[in-house]
């Protein structure tokens, strides 16, 4: 029996697997997929693709596979013609999805303040560049 590379989970430790799980859950597509599946019994691949703007078929498949491997998403293939594959959240996935959903809602609520701060920052940088260049 091998020793876990991270006996005490710590996302700041370079060799701790928690870091890669955090990356999977908080990636752009991971967040959006988890949030989209939240509150749904299940969704088909095509439904997910249509409802998440900008995601490619390849990236959707890769992200779903990663989230399935981590135990957040359940994949169910139904033997019909044409084949139907449904995706849903596991209990662990539901918990993660609630967390990222709260973060996504916070980002939406805070967006006006963030955009105003970005504009002020960009203006300061332009003024500084104009005086030094």
Kindly list the characteristics that best describe this protein.
extended; Arc Repressor Mutant, subunit A; 5 helices; mainly alpha; 133 residues
Question: Can you describe what's shown?
Answer:
The protein has 133 residues and is mostly helical. It has a single domain (18-132), classed as Arc Repressor Mutant, subunit A (Orthogonal Bundle), CATH 1.10.10. Helix content is 61%, strand content 11%. The protein has five helices and three strands; from the N terminus they run ααβααββα. The model has no long low-confidence stretch (mean pLDDT 91).
Quick take:
With 133 residues, the chain is mostly helical.
Task: List the topology elements.
Elements lengths: L17 H9 L1 H10 L5 E2 H7 L5 H13 L3 E6 L5 E6 L1 H42 L1
Antiparallel strand pairs: 1-3, 2-3
Helix pairs in contact: 2-5
Characterize the overall form.
extended
Q: Going across the major beta sheet, what is the strand order?
A: 1-3-2
As a percent range, the share of helical residues equals: 55-70%
- The first-to-last residue Cα distance is 62 Å
Round the mean pLDDT to the nearest integer and report it.
Answer: 91
CATH superfamily: Winged helix-like DNA-binding domain superfamily/Winged helix DNA-binding domain
Judging by the overall fold, what is the CATH architecture? Orthogonal Bundle
Beta strands, count: 3
The percent range for strand residues is: 5-15%
| Tally of individual helices | 5
Q: The biggest beta sheet, please?
A: 3 strands, antiparallel
**Uncertain residue ranges:** none
Order of helices and strands: HHEHHEEH
